[in-house]
Amino acid sequence: MTEGTQDLVAPVAARLRAAKIGLRAGEIADWDREAALLVASASADDPARGLDRLVADRVRGVPLGYLTGAETFLGDDFAVEPGVIIPHPATELLALLAVRAVDLYAGGEARPGLLEVGVGSGAVAVSVLKRRPAVEAHGSELSAAALRLTRDNAARLVPAPYTLKLYQCYFTDELFAPFTADPPRNVQVVVSNPPYLADTDQLSEATRKSGLAHLSYSPDNDPSWFLRQVTADPEGYLAPSCSIVMECAEWYFTDHEKVLTEAGWQVELFDRQKYVSVFGASPDMRPMRPSGHRVLHAWRGEGRPLA
What we know:
It comes from Sphaerisporangium krabiense. By secondary structure, the protein is an alpha/beta fold. The protein folds into 2 domains: 59 residues; 194 residues, Rossmann fold (3-Layer(aba) Sandwich). A 7-stranded mixed beta sheet has the order 5-4-3-6-7-9-8, sandwiched between helices. A two-stranded antiparallel ribbon has the order 1-2. It is globular. It starts with a helix and ends in a 7-residue tail after the last strand.
């Protein structure tokens, strides 16, 4: 950023602060950071005019990542675009716990197998691969654009060689059925930030304006739908000993726990405070305000708790 463009940051930050833009649940406002990113994203040919358009769009509630083309996740910048869910800072906990779950099954003859359902821009799967390159990763996704971004983000952020096989499905309730050509087998870790809300749950203003709010709601209005699908495992993807790592809402955990225990799984629940108390603080995690975001870890067979 040049000295001239640096001078634009303070007035842009003031405009953003005055607009009282809605944030996603748990996010902390950092208008100076947002202003710097918008200034850096403005057209070099006509920075003032381009910046004015970007700021006007942000004030209208357009997500920052859609304006800058990137979102930071565990210290890495992931390419994003309209129509693809922007990774939430709460989901960083999901990725870090997925790494810990992979470690439970490392050391055997076979490479640890990971299946992410709903990869989005690839933030979770790519973050796991970057930290555990021996993982054999598979992922499903509704959006062709999201699959393209996941491939691009992986190629840019994960040193070769690595294994990442991606599959497109066409309906939310088909997230487990797109693996016909090359199905994963012996999956030891299933990870997902699935649709986990009921239609009575309130969404943040920022989520409502993203254009993708419908993806927050569970099929059949059942917040435990994802867990019922995984534990049934009709296609036989799962290893006898394996884990599920899933982002969820705190207020639905009792329902999730019932589904899991009735299917023969054990379960534990994490928030950020518990993660830090068990594993220590991660410098890559962005700060957040308290929210209802949680991550559950369930295991069966010779799996074991993370905490």
